[in-house]
Amino acid sequence: xxxxxxxxxxxVSWSALAAEPVxxxxxxxxxxxxxxxxxxxxxxxELQALPQGExxxxxxxxxxxxxxxxxxxRALLDTLFAHAKIRTLYLEALNGFSVAVDWQEVAPYSPLLxxxxxxxxxxxxxxxxxxxxxxxxxxxxxxxxxxxxYMAWQLRHIKVRTEPK
Length: 165
What we know:
- The protein is α+β, with helices and mostly antiparallel strands.
- It has a single domain, classed as Oxidoreductase, molybdopterin-binding domain (Sulfite Oxidase, Chain A, domain 2), CATH 3.90.420.10.
- The protein has five helices and ten strands, in the order H-E-E-H-E-E-H-E-E-H-E-E-E-H-E.
- The protein has helices at residues 2-14, 44-48, 73-80, 103-106, 145-150, and strands at residues 22-32, 35-43, 52-57, 66-72, 84-93, 98-102, 112-117, 120-121, 131-133, 155-164.
- The longest helix has 13 residues, at 2-14.
- The two termini are 18 Å apart.
- It comes from Oceanimonas pelagia.
- Residues 1-18 form the signal peptide.
């Protein structure tokens, strides 16, 4: 966990100099290696340098299972908000969609911020650049409408609401 924090601090320090466009902003009461931040911006290469995961799942938006690769959202948030208990994520998408997500309901299912579908980068046309993916077809509870709404695509901003531990 300490190594991840050092990597995160390095990424935060250098993100302003990156030639790549920012594809994700996380805001909230962020604390990293003793420093406080109101928001952190990430480029795709920065996100790809952090802990990744992969899931193959079917869902209502495709006719067959697809394999998604992306950022382990729980690992990232555990690092940025280690000092607080995460309550709610407010997901905002490029297309104007927004949803409030109860983090305690979603975290146990290892959510990914997917940037790749079947080995290809996801474009805006293909629900990219980021899509919150859950193992939809593996857990019957996830097949409820509430969880489907949580699977936001064209994700651009995550506002995190916390409370003290």
